[in-house]
Amino acid sequence: MSRLVSPEGTALLIGGKLVPGGAGVFDTVDPATERVLGHAADADAADLDAAVAAARAAFDDTDWPRDPAFRARCLRQLRDALRGHLEELREITIAEAGAPRMLTGGPQLEAPIGDLGWFADLAESYCWDTDLGAARPMGVRSGRTLHREPIGVVGAITPWNFPHQINLAKLGPALAAGATVVLKPAPETPWCAAYIGAIIATETDIPAGVVDIVTSSDHGLGARLVEDPRVDMISFTGSTRTGRAVMASAAATVKKVFLELGGKSACIVLDDADIAAASRYAAFSVCVHAGQGCALTTRLLVPRAAHDEAVAAAAEAMAAVVPGDPNEAGTICGPLISERQRARVERYLDIARAEGGTVVTGGGRPAGRDRGYFVEPTLIAGLPNGSTVAQEEIFGPVLVVIPHDGDADAVRLANDSRYGLSGAVWGADPDRIRTVVRGLRIGTVGVNGGIWYSADAPFGGYKQSGIGRELGVAGFEEYLQTKLVATAE
Ligand code: NAD
Questions:
Q1: Which CATH number goes with the domain that contains 330?
Q2: Which residue of 111, 235, 279, 320 has the lowest C-beta tally within 10 Å?
Q3: How far does the centroid of ligand 1 lie from the alpha carbon of residue 106, in Å?
Q4: Is 261 a pocket residue for ligand 1 (Cβ < 6 Å)?
Q5: Are residues 219 and 292 in the same domain?
Q6: pLDDT for the residue 3
Q7: Ligand 1 touching residue 247 (CB < 6 A)
């Protein structure tokens, strides 16, 4: 497959060296075929401890935190080296994450690699020191300077659904800021992370210990990383349930937590919108990568009078999406990541039926696919916003249609969720759209098909969707500390 990732197994990156895992190796599986692709190094607790020690030493004992120009050069070098391996990375991402090939041209691979350049530029242009001028607090004339400094050692813990996007959206800003990073990727996608580790070790000048990557089959290693007092911050993306555990355990060492968690986002269609077009768009987008996107709009809120029209349009769009081989150029809906994840989605479909919902289209496994963790794109109607499938994150190609009684009611329903990650609004009147957008308690909103994802645009959630922002200047500043120096004049 590649000289850096072979079926014999990948390596951990610890202290600048590519090393085997103390716990041996574990399988990585192609979710489209259920075939074992090969092995990844399985880190044990001693490996994690060594990785944290290396990251600590790189932060405390080298110039990395104080040399933004060098960091910018390293980030561009990493970007260019990754681009040099784009095709191998693409094949690994499709095979290991089940990511449709067409998505690797964007957020699954090429976009986050390119985004490293944006963070390199920011490291150079950022205003690290600000003169606040003189003041006379308590009668002492003092000149004040504000310094922004890297936060220290970052423990980065990531999920499997967009492995490169999420790994690089942590590495890019953290490294630009001058932090050092121990990355613990999801057990389902170790190769995507290990490959980056191999490139860092062999093709960049990133100093030893600045990035350490520990692949592991054991979720407990993530918990251990959170508990480690040598780690200054945890940057976590994953489920709200795990995020809660991370936050609770980080409290013991009072470390900063940055959390990107789950979502149950709403697409609001106003009564002056093209109802059928908006419903088709929402239906199609929930099928992308088999619905395994935290910010996908999985609730479709439509005017009550147009409910049947919306259901018909959404059902038609979903029925036209055939789950298939992610290798094929035309596939947008590949497999779910694992048998466990498919069982979870199917359990939610059973709950929807038991609560009285109607499965308008889908609801089963696609015909002709006896291997791979596929499910049919599924549209559910006839359930209120309080139902289980309208409240809980399913993480599959499942859309729930709910009628609303006007703009204010749509906002109320959209906000009636423990999550607050993202959303969409479709309508014709800019004033009405503005009022609806203002009422939504969510971190990103797409209006009439607008796309918010980009390196300079902060992304993150309200409520139980998280704390903090990823990407943009706000995402970079998550990895900074603030030091105020007052000098008597
Ligand atoms: P998960 O929470 O099960 O696991 C995420 C990571 O946490 C993995 O690396 C896992 O090994 C690790 N982990 C597990 N238990 C841990 C613990 N106790 N302490 C520390 N680390 C631990 O999530 P998942 O199933 O891998 O990913 C799917 C979830 O991720 C969905 O809920 C989805 O919404 C969310 N997600 C959120 C965003 C976002 O930006 N908001 C993006 C992608 C995915």
A1: 3.40.309.10
A2: 320
A3: 22
A4: yes
A5: no
A6: 52
A7: no
- The answer to whether residues 352 and 471 belong to one domain is no
114: region left, alpha or beta (phi > 0 left; psi from -120 to 50 alpha):
alpha
Residue 454: inside a domain = no
Q: Are residues 91 and 116 in the same domain?
A: yes
CATH number for the domain including 186? 3.40.605.10
Distance 388 CA to ligand 1 centre (A): 21
Q: What is the pLDDT of residues 220-240, one digit of tens each?
A: 999 999 999 999 999 999 999
| Cβ contact 366:331 at 8 Å | no
Whether the predicted model's global pTM rises above the 0.85 cut = yes
State both tokens at 140: 């002492």
Is ligand 1 within 6 A of the CB of residue 338? no
Please work out whether the CB of residue 214 comes within 6 Å of at least one atom of ligand 1: no
Catalytic residue among 96, 188, 260, 376: 260
Can you give the residue range of the structural domain that contains 194?
A: 12-261+466-488
Q: What is the pLDDT of residues 286-321, one digit of tens each?
A: 999 999 999 999 999 999 999 999 999 999 999 999
Q: Is the CB of 262 under 6 A from ligand 1?
A: yes
Same domain, 206 and 312: no
Which atom of ligand 1 has the smallest separation from the CA of 216? 11
Q: How many structural domains is the chain composed of?
A: 2
Name the residue type at position 48. L
As a whole number, mean pLDDT of residues 190-207 equals 97
Assess whether 260 carries a catalytic annotation: yes
Phi-psi region of 467 (alpha: psi -120 to 50; beta: other; left: phi over 0): beta
Radius of gyration of the chain (CA): 23
Residues 155 and 204 placed together within one structural domain of the fold: yes
- pLDDT number for residue 270: 98
Q: Give dist(CA 130, CA 294) in Å, integer.
A: 37
Residues 44 and 122 in one domain: yes
Question: Do 157 and 286 fall within a single domain?
Answer: no
- DSSP E strands in 270-382: the ranges are 297-303, 358-361, 378-381
Is pLDDT above 80 for 84? Answer: yes
